[in-house]
Amino acid sequence: MTPLTVVAGQAVSLPEADVDTDIIYPARFLLITEKKGLGAYAFADRRADPSFPIGTDNDRPILIAGPNFGCGSSREQAPWAIGDLGIRVIVAESFGEIFYGNCFRNGMLPIRLDATDVAMLRGIAEAGGTISVDLEARTVTAGDVAIPFAIAEDRREALLKGWNDTLRILALHGDDISRFEAAQQRATPWLWTART
Amino acid sequence: MARTLYEKLWDAHVVAEADGKALLYIDRHLLHEVSTPQSFEALREDGLSVRRRAAQLAVADHSVPTHDRDQPIADRQAAAQVALLERNCAEFGIEYLTLTGGDQGIVHVIGPEQGFTLPGMTLVCGDSHTSTHGAFGALAFGIGASECGTVMATQTLWQAPARTMRVTFDGKLAPGVTAKDMALAFIRETGASGGTGFAVEYAGEAVRALSMEGRMTLCNMTIEAGARSGIVAPDKTTFAYLEGRPRAPRGAQWEAAIAYWRTLASDPDAAFDHEVVIAADGIAPHATFGTSPDQSLPMGAVIPADDRLAKPLRYMDLRAGDALLGLPIDHAFIGSCTNGRIEDLRAAAAVIGGGHVAEGVRALVVPGSMRVKAAAEAEGLDHLFTAAGFEWREPGCSLCVAMNDDRLPPGARCASTSNRNFEGRQGVGARTHLMSPAMVAAAAIAGRIVDVRQVAA
Ligand code: SF4
Prior knowledge:
The structure holds two protein chains of two kinds. Chain A is α/β, with parallel strands linked by helices.
């Protein structure tokens, strides 16, 4: 995974609430079994509207989204498609929970801020100003205002270092898992029958 | 210390802890063709194998056609996707339920009916409606494709504990009112994101009175309120459903399992972070009017005036002040992991009462699994449906997600038993009204949305 430390540049604003992952990545494109190049299908059914702000030629690394962004289906194609458009940071009041977690696993940073801060950043985005996100310092900076944001420490570290979740669990907790399994086989043996 | 059911399930699966999170052991993983190609690819890239093969079970459901099951899949992309799942399963040693083997179906229908889903488990799937399995008193939640790979390789996931919410449905449901209406009423009250960060436990007289099918409908829709899991404490209804299922424990193991499962209830004095109480006897049949599952109305009410509804109402071609009662529909869909089980098909068939699908309406019945289909056919439900003008299909997700060739044209208006009324969910520009199976069947016959209480004699 590509590490993420500082992301700076212009931001694109999509103020709509409850933008679900069906809007981000319509289901009919889920037949594609690839992970790369999905930006071509991002927001596919919205782009026909000329006023829709995010095009396939997007060059802005930050998205200022509306509340409950990424709700609905768990499809990871949603963050893959957004990431493929070069977006690495998404700021919103709230996120769909599965989408929120999926972002981290793909080197993207979702930031929850309160409504006033989101509105302020949206204003800057719409005026074409630049925004800088510093994950080390946990701040979003625009002009001379620096807004702190909260993030779980393990997630921050994993993003900063570009860790692979799976390999890390195996390296650090292989023995813990084996110990757990042995104990569970004794306590609830029906979970460990021949077929399972 | 008094604990909630969620906390008991959590505590029983902690492998390691750090930073307020737990590395949770995952007992079971269900796989389908759409969310796993990239998970297997990640295993290959990292040179990893599947840690516990028999804890995984795979089936194709999302992209499979619901007709001509004996023929090869016509759509090239869909055929390739299903073939890839089968190949990946063969390569990594995972059991795959074939399209013609009699056990295929929607992943959330087959888990329980196979007895693969059991009380007390942790269960995941690369699908948000994995919350369905919580109906058995399991901690079940949807994950992304990357996590599917992590589960296959490690049988664990790092998770932050959720806050707990208890939703108590007091009293009894009125005739014609179902688990689907309970779900829509709860989501309307909570909002599409009101449950974010919570694990929901459903309790109360009306929940205890639900069949397992009803409990699955309720837990299934929990994600539509933003919560990743919905749980119902297991009881004799749960045990009766599971006994004798192909993968359920037997003999002495069954007895031991039941003894443990009986301990899986929230302690009487356990504290929840949030409590919601809903009078079940006050719930009317619901239908959605907008493009988010929280935009629903009890039958008889009109669409409220609210600026925030402007966009969804434009999409749905409706206005504030409009009633849903009497609204003409041109499509009807009975199926999905929300309402594609035998009890749902029975409820839909029961309101046909010698009627026929209205002219100009296309109505599909898509059983949730081969086993559901076989059970329905043994009862003669297929004849009832086809004689009334419904199409009787093969199992799959079908019009719930419109990834196969079941797709609605732009502007179509569909009464649907599925779980999401999102823009374009049933086809670009198509309009979805979510409701219960009996409400959908009644709408198909009337050609417009009707109150099932006025139809059911
Ligand atoms: S029936 Fe619908 S909600 Fe259920 S798994 Fe299939 S696509 Fe998802």
